[in-house]
Structure formats: C-alpha cells, structure tokens
Design goal:
By secondary structure, this protein is of the alpha+beta class. The chain has two domains: 94 residues, no CATH class; 142 residues, Aminopeptidase (3-Layer(aba) Sandwich). The protein is 31% helix and 30% strand. It has seven helices and eleven strands. Helix 4 crosses helix 5. It is globular, with a radius of gyration of 19 Å.
Length: 264
C-alpha cells in the first residue's frame, strides 16, 4: 500500500523552492562530469560525453558574463548549458547572454501540493528497482533516446545516474521485457521526478501512473516534503497528467545555450 506523503507546499516560498530545485538540478548534473570551481560559477564538464549537452554545464551564481566566459576559456572547459540561479543576481547575466546570441530554453516546473493517487490498474506488469536490472534499464534509455532522435551517447549518460546514491529508479517489466521507468532525485527533504517514460506500445494502460505512484512511495519512505517535476515546454499531455495528480505550476526553469549548439 502506498504511504501517505506529507507534502509541504513549496510554492508558498517561491525563492526557497527555486533554490531547492536549482540544487537538485546541480546534483543531477554531477553524475555526468567533473567539477571546476570558477569565480562566481561552477562548471561541470565531461569530454568523453562530447555530444551530451547535459554533461557540459555552468551554474552561475553571480559573476558577470565576461568573467565567466574568460574563466571557462582559461580552464579549457566547454559549457553548452548556462544555468542561472534565479535566487542570485540574474537579470544582467541573462541580458548579456541574449546579447551574445545565446538561446533561452525554458521548461515548466510543477511542485506537488497534494498527491491524488491514481486508480489501481489491472496491467500485468511488475515494478522493480532499476539497479536490479541494469540491462533492461539501459534498453529503456536506448529506446527513449532513439524515439526522441537524440544521440546514442545520451543513453549511456542516463545510466550513469544509477551510480548516484541520491537517485532511485524503478522499471516496469512484462513478459515482453522492459516497458517503462521512472526515477527520483533527492536532496535533503526534497526530490524531483526524473526520466518518466513508457514505451509507445504500452502507453494508455496506466503504467506511467503506476510507476509514479511507486516513486511517490519512495519519497514518502524517505520523508521528503517537497516534490518537483519539470516537463519539456511542448509536452502538454505530461503536464496535464501531473496537474491531475496534484502538482501546481511553480514557473519556468530557464537555461541558455549558444545559438549553434547542436548537442542533445
């Protein structure tokens, strides 16, 4: 039976909520690269994952654009994604990025207000930890990246998150093999839903909702108080699902990427 999650509505303190979300995003990136501390920023980079944008990020906390760019150049670090801490000095940095032809990309973030548990499904699948079925998890990652027409290196990058003790992932299996997955990245008493995916042939059967319910159970057992989820800007179907399940809109999480960035 799923445990009752005692949720604190993080949206009542938006600055705190955004700082928590920013910290979780930073932890998520840590699984993919090495850290270099710069003046006013922290860079995470992995040359072995040259075609995965998530492995080349700079988290900016206050320095101006030219200072960060120069520091990155001196350290010979590639930074595809610039994450701007919205709780720190932000407006001047974003203006400088736009002036230098960086593209703004925003994903809607929702925070759980009250978990509306989905109705039980009769789907004949079993749910197990992803770490107990590494090959099946890797196969789901490959299917996801292939469906989105993204670089195959991204599938390998996704599996690296299983090395992070702050990340828990579940997969759904039926007689045909792996059919879905969902994960939870946590920091302190907060967490974020990650990598929620169901293979096309098994959509509409309640597998995604079942996986989410199991992930919420993980959150409850860990006594988390705030749960976030971010969706792609055009994924209205997923956002509507999360709204039905009890998530409220917090706002957009904004990053900037060079205009010529083609990495996934």
């Amino acid at each position: 039976m799923t445990m009752q999650l005692k949720v604190v509505d993080a949206s009542k303190s938006s600055s705190r909520a955004w700082q928590v979300f920013y910290d979780i995003e930073y932890d998520w990136a840590l699984a993919l690269g090495d850290v270099t501390e710069l003046s006013g920023a922290t860079a995470i980079s992995n040359p072995a994952l040259a075609d995965v944008w998530d492995a080349h990020r700079v988290f900016v906390s206050g320095a101006d654009f030219n200072s960060v760019r120069d520091a990155l150049s001196q350290a010979n670090i590639k930074a595809v994604v610039w994450d701007i801490n919205r709780c720190a000095a932000r407006d001047e940095m974003e203006a400088a990025l736009r002036d230098n032809s960086f593209q703004r990309r925003a994903g809607p973030v929702q925070v759980l207000k009250k978990w509306n548990r989905p109705a039980p499904t009769s789907t004949e699948v079993i749910v197990i930890p992803a770490r107990a079925a590494l090959d099946q998890y890797a196969e789901l990652c490959r299917q996801w990246t292939a469906e989105d027409k993204q670089d195959a290196a991204l599938a390998h990058a996704m599996t690296l998150h299983l090395d992070d003790p702050k990340y828990d992932a579940l997969i759904a299996l039926d007689d045909a093999g792996p059919v879905g997955m969902a994960g939870l990245q946590s920091r302190g008493d907060a967490g974020r839903l990650q990598e929620v995916y169901v293979v096309p042939t098994h959509r509409g059967r309640g597998i995604g909702s079942m996986l989410l319910d199991r992930v919420i159970e993980l959150a409850a057992r860990a006594q988390l108080k705030s749960i976030f989820v971010m969706t792609a800007p055009g994924n209205h179907k997923a956002r509507a699902l999360y709204t039905r399940l009890g998530f409220d809109l917090l706002g957009d999480y904004v990053v900037y990427m060079p205009a010529d960035a083609t990495s996934v």
